[in-house]
Design brief:
With about 220 residues, the protein is an alpha+beta fold. The protein is about 50% helix and about 15% strand.
Length: about 220
């Protein structure tokens, strides 16, 4: 068997490895960024075509940030191919496919949390459409601890304190609540903490309205 032929086949396989990495670098990062962002920032459910387009946009952004390093590595690998290049390719692929998308997702989340885009638009006197899909998301995304009176669909009311151990669903299809502190309000408006309970769960269909109170302390 011709030794040159073996070497050529090996180099061809290695180059195929490069092309496979390039394909993965373009599709997977967008998926990771989009999924991480949507798990932290509430969004309206999107059509699958919109989501695929979003994957491409995020992936393009990720590749754009790595364009110059990728080009330099590709030129060096093509000109001076050796076994060390394979290890280098795996390291770079790991950075581009997994680590970089996580970093981009965290930056997007932080910008959203600090309303950076809204501030820039206001500074430039541009129209800004709020990114919160509903008033529910707008209110509860920044709630730290608040007294509430919840009116149920049967007109009964539930009073309580939404604290750090409470839970507010960000799922648009299941807007349920768990309140860890349940209180009772008498006819004189005096609040008394209910004992012997570990909180209350309220299904989203049962919630008619929620009143948020400004007072810091009850009882």
């Amino acid at each position: 068997m011709n030794i040159r032929s073996i070497n050529n086949n090996g180099e061809e396989n290695d180059r195929n490895l490069i092309y496979n990495h390039c394909s993965n670098c373009f599709f997977i990062p967008g998926f990771i960024i989009s999924e991480l962002v949507q798990r932290i920032i509430p969004v309206i459910n999107k059509d699958y075509k919109i989501r695929i387009l979003e994957y491409f946009i995020y992936s393009f952004l990720n590749i754009f940030l790595w364009a110059i390093p990728i080009y330099n590595v590709y030129i060096n690998v093509i000109n001076e191919w050796n076994e060390n290049c394979i290890l280098l390719l795996w390291i770079i692929a790991l950075m581009i496919i997994f680590i970089s998308p996580i970093g981009i997702a965290l930056i997007i989340v932080l910008c959203n949390k600090n309303n950076l885009l809204e501030k820039i638009c206001k500074h430039l006197q541009l129209t800004y459409n709020d990114s919160d899909p509903s008033a529910w998301d707008f209110k509860f995304k920044k709630i730290q601890g608040e007294w509430v009176i919840i009116t149920l669909s049967d007109k009964r009311t539930v009073a309580g304190f939404i604290g750090k151990n409470s839970f507010i669903s960000s799922n648009s299809k299941e807007r349920d609540l768990y309140i860890d502190e349940v209180w009772e309000v008498d006819k004189k408006g005096k609040w008394k903490k209910r004992v012997g309970t570990d909180g209350i769960w309220i299904k989203h269909e049962e919630i008619l309205s929620i009143e948020f109170l400004l007072y810091e302390r009850r009882g």
